[in-house]
Design brief:
The complex is a heterodimer of chains A (260) and B (421). Chain A is α/β, with parallel strands linked by helices and 260 residues long. Chain A contains nine helices and twelve strands. Chain A has helices at residues 47-54, 77-83, 100-104, 118-131, 149-162, 179-194, 206-212, 235-242, 249-253, and strands spanning 9-18, 21-31, 36-41, 62-67, 70-72, 85-88, 111-112, 115-116, 167-171, 198-202, 215-220, 223-229. Chain B is globular, with a radius of gyration of 23 Å. The chains are: A alpha/beta (260), B mainly alpha (421).
Chain lengths: 260, 421
């Protein structure tokens, strides 16, 4: 089950503890360009901690990180941004009082002299949304407060694409969405990968995971218990891993399975 | 809002990429949708202002005279300028209760500088503006870095600065200002011809600005405001401006032979310039954009890489610096500085901003809210004064109007978050 291509982002043996609690106990994890990698696990398994480490928000205590094959530091969110790793958080991090374009360019506004170059930003935002086949908005100058949950998620995801990012990490992108909107967002996630990005999706919803992911990593109490190819498994098996029903964790941790 | 996707023909451009010449009807519909979603902007204040003007004109014929009209501008000026500074702070959802006494400190420094220290007026002005900036940095530091709520910081300074003013002026003091340049700010008028030049610049400038903006958007293939809409807006500005400048150009002195008095007060172009500069900063720079972002969602702003503390400090600095300027204008109008300077005016200024449509919850507000809200506050003050009401009644009415505006703000916020799915 190893991939021939070099992973765009890979961590080996990363650890993280908060005081006496070991939250990550030597995790191996890899993201490949053009594929969707799902990260699943029960509450407290360490998913968020792993993501925060990859985003540079909470640097790992130990282990090595490779980006495009080279060892890198992720000690600061700026390192992650510079490499092209972008996290789209569950709570979205959009400003309700700003419009779609303003949100997509927030913190990275384009300027002409000292003034903002609104027209340029609007056309870039439009092109990006169009390239992702987003059709649900009527105007890019709509305030985000007037958008539906799915549209908001779409804006948040599109923002991560705008900056030629290479890896996009989505934290529970469908958590608060209805059926139709979930479908839209999952299609968008798939298109991100098809456009050549490495995509990581964290989700509690196995149905979503099976629909969109190529690989499934399962975290259990701070250890990566398995890496499965979506086509070669089923949700029963994944649930067993998530709940700790399968105890082949040690074998995998020793490195024979996830030696990517 | 059309979230349905029956227009989902992949050959067709998505709606947001289609070029469209926005008609007057589109603009009207967009505005209606905005108001309905709870964002009423300055609309209630404009309506209120018109009603108040009609009422006061009917109640007392003196209200609608050129002399009172000109007085109204100089009366409103200090509140408007103070409110402009406060809007920056309010946009972050913070407050500066010390803005009024900060202007008092600045005025006191100006007066003492001109008299006891014998400074030239530019130096004295610079000293008092600098004092405002330093005070702003100090407040910003305490709020952003130490983490004291702005309400508490500025309430403490509200008390402390009243003492500071006393110390600067000296016990029982009241310093007269005799410098002609300082006095001119609030007491002199432009020559009639200059008033019309100013009028032409404002109307022409607005049209050019709107027109080139439209052309730039069209060139990029975006929807743009229709030429008709621009012409209508320009027409309204031209008409209102004409009436204003015409009225101010009439002879308004009580005793024309002895003391002729006409022309647009000098403070009017000063406020116009301030509006232009602050409006540019808020609407057209990334700094302004970041202020709105921090006021809308601090966490989102932080994650977008915006230095939130820096924005906070900058905003308090702008507010106190502007307050210092308001203090100079106040000193010019009163031709003196007394220890009570600026004590009550801050609430009027906050009221002006909120009445004009700036939200106390942050993230929503425009610089022209200060103009409209300030006009409402000044009309109430002026009109009720003419009707012979006591200062006590005026204070109660202004307080009630502030409460009303804050209530409307809170309710519209509730409504706009309710619309959100």
């Amino acid at each position: 089950m190893t991939d021939d291509s070099m992973p765009i982002l890979e961590v080996r043996g990363v650890t993280k503890s908060f005081g006496a609690v070991d939250v990550l106990r030597g995790i191996d994890f890899a993201v490949h360009t053009g594929s969707v990698t799902a990260l699943v696990g029960d509450n407290g398994a360490g998913k968020s901690t792993l993501i925060k480490g990859l985003a540079g928000i909470q640097p790992f205590d130990g282990g090595t990180i490779y980006f495009e094959g080279k060892e890198v530091d992720l000690e600061d969110p700026k390192h992650a941004s510079a490499l092209g790793i972008e996290v789209v958080y569950q709570d979205l991090a959009l400003c309700d009082n700003l419009d779609i374009v303003q949100n997509m360019f927030l913190g990275r506004e384009m300027k002409r002299g000292i003034a903002l170059d609104e027209a340029h930003m609007e056309s870039r935002a439009g092109e990006t949304l169009q390239s992702l086949s987003v059709r649900t908005m009527s105007s890019l100058r709509q305030k985000v407060s007037s958008l539906s949950g799915g549209q908001r998620q779409t804006v948040a995801i599109a923002r991560s694409v705008l900056w030629n990012n290479k890896v996009v990490i989505l934290d529970e992108p469908t958590a608060a969405l209805g059926v139709a909107q979930t479908e839209q967002v999952l299609n968008l996630v798939r298109r991100l990968a098809d456009n050549g990005l490495g995509v990581v999706i964290i989700s509690h919803n196995l149905q979503d995971v099976f629909q969109v992911a190529d690989y499934i990593y399962v975290l259990y109490l701070g250890t990566m218990v398995t890496r499965l190819k979506t086509t070669e498994t089923n949700s029963g098996e994944v649930v067993e891993y998530i709940t700790g029903g399968r105890k082949d964790a040690d074998a995998i941790l020793s490195g024979e399975e996830v030696s990517a | 809002m059309s979230t349905n996707t029956n227009s989902d023909v992949s050959t067709e451009l998505p709606k947001y990429m289609q070029q469209k010449n926005l008609s007057i009807r589109d603009t009207w519909n967009a505005y209606r949708a905005k108001v309905r979603s709870g964002d009423m902007g300055s609309l209630p204040a404009v309506i209120g202002l018109i009603i108040l003007v009609i009422l006061f004109s009917l109640a007392n014929p003196v209200f609608f005279t050129p002399l009172n009209f000109a007085n109204f501008f100089t009366q409103a000026a200090v509140v408007v300028i103070l409110a402009m500074g406060l809007i920056f702070v309010l946009l972050l959802g913070e407050i500066d209760l010390s803005a009024g006494v900060t202007s008092g400190v600045a005025g006191a420094l100006l007066a003492v500088g001109l008299t006891r220290w014998g400074l030239e007026w530019p130096v004295a002005v610079a000293v008092s503006l600098l004092a405002g900036v330093v005070i702003g940095i100090f407040i910003g530091f305490l709020v952003a870095k130490v983490g004291i709520p702005s309400f508490v910081v500025t309430l403490a300074l509200f008390l402390a600065f009243q003492g500071l003013i006393l110390v600067i002026i000296g016990e029982g003091g009241n310093i007269r200002i005799t410098n002609q340049v300082i006095l001119a700010i609030q007491n002199n008028n432009m020559p009639i011809w200059m008033g019309w030049v100013f009028y032409t610049i404002v109307v022409g400038g607005y049209f050019l600005f709107a027109y080139t903006g439209r052309m730039r958007r069209l060139a990029r293939g975006f929807s743009a405001t229709s030429l008709n809409m621009i012409l209508i807006k320009t027409g309204v500005i031209a008409l209102v401006g004409f009436a204003t400048v015409y009225a101010l150009s009439l002879e308004r002195s009580v005793n024309p032979e002895l003391n002729p008095l006409s022309g647009v007060p000098i403070i009017v172009p000063i406020i116009a310039l301030l509006t232009l500069v602050f409006g540019f900063v808020l609407d057209r720079t990334s700094f302004g954009r970041h202020i709105y972002a921090v006021g809308g969602n601090v966490e989102a702003a932080r994650r977008a890489g915006i230095n939130v503390s820096q924005i906070r400090i900058a905003v308090f600095t702008i507010c106190s610096g502007t307050a210092a300027f308001a203090g100079i204008v106040f000193a010019s109008r009163a031709a003196s500085v007394d220890p009570n300077a600026g004590k009550f005016i801050v609430l009027n200024a906050i009221a002006a901003a909120v009445i004009g449509g700036t939200s106390l919850f942050g993230g929503r507000g425009r610089i022209h809210d200060a103009l409209i809200g300030g006009a409402v506050v000044a009309v109430i003050d002026n009109g009720m004064g003419l009707l012979g009401y006591s200062a006590g009644v005026k204070l109660m009415i202004t307080g009630s109007v502030l409460m009303l505006a804050a209530g409307a703000d809170a309710l519209s916020r509730k409504r706009s978050t309710g619309v959100m799915r």
